[in-house]
Every structure is written in C-alpha cells, then in structure tokens.
Amino acid sequence: LRLRNASAASAQTDPSSSERKMDKLPTASDQSENEADRNITQQIRQAVVKDDSLSTSAQNVTIVTKDGKVTFRGTVKSASDKQKIADKAHTVSGVKGVDNQIAVKQ
Q1: Looking at the predicted structure, is the pLDDT value of residue 9 above 70?
Q2: How confident is the model at residue 23 (pLDDT cuts 50, 70, 90)?
Q3: 84-98 pLDDT, tens digit each
Q4: Which residues are CB-neighbours of 9 under 8 A, at least 6 positions away?
Q5: What's the pLDDT score for residue 20?
C-alpha cells in the first residue's frame, strides 16, 4: 500500500513535457559573463525601465543575452508591451537575434 502511494506521489511531482520544455529556456542565471552580452542586456534593461508607457510587469521581464542572442521571458499585460520590448532589443548594437518568450496575460 505504501508503494502505491509513493508511486502516485512521484507521478504527481513528475513535470509534464511542457514544464520540461520551459526549463530549457534561458533564465537570469544563464546570463553570459561576456562583457558584450552584459552590455547588451544592460542597454535593453535601461531602455525598458525608462519607457513609462510600459506596464510594471513589462518593465520587469527577464532579459538574458548569450552570444548576442537576446531572450525575453515573463508576462505582460498587452501585445503592445511585448512588441515594444522586442523593438528595443533591435535598436541595440551587437544584438544578433531576439527570442521573445514573453506571454501576454489574458
């Protein structure tokens, strides 16, 4: 009986395939220590925080740069916020690509 309960408990804690997929997306701890990547992230963060038209949630998205590729993660209130953030990345020198993983809260 205890083995059954243990199996049921482990099945409940086993992450689904979508959760495992999310785990592969970059997080803030994946930020490159490369000076160029840190500068890109810093410039984008400054532009995002300076934009008063963005919601607080938009100003707090995760920004990770690795080898010039910028990844955004988080949740924002509108598709407009999501696009504005991506647009800011495209204006920064050294950005080689943008992976916009931001979700819009419905």
Answers
A1: no
A2: low
A3: 999 999 999 999 999
A4: none
A5: 40
DSSP 95: -
6: pLDDT strictly greater than 60: no
* Residue 70 φ/ψ, nearest 5 degrees: -100, 130
Both structure tokens of 68: 């010039």
Please answer whether residues 99 and 72 qualify as being in contact, where contact means their C-beta atoms are separated by less than 8 angstroms: yes
* Lookup result for tokens 């220590």: 33
Residues 6+ apart with CB under 8 A from 79: 104
Amino acid identity at 41: T
Q: Taking the alpha carbons of 69, 72, 99, 90 in that order, is the dihedral positive or negative? A: negative
- The residue among 47, 91, 89 whose CA lies nearest residue 71 is 89
Q: Are 48 and 57 in contact (CB under 8 A)?
A: no
Question: Distance (Å, rounded) from C-alpha 53 to C-alpha 32?
Answer: 29
CB 45 within 8 A of CB 65: no
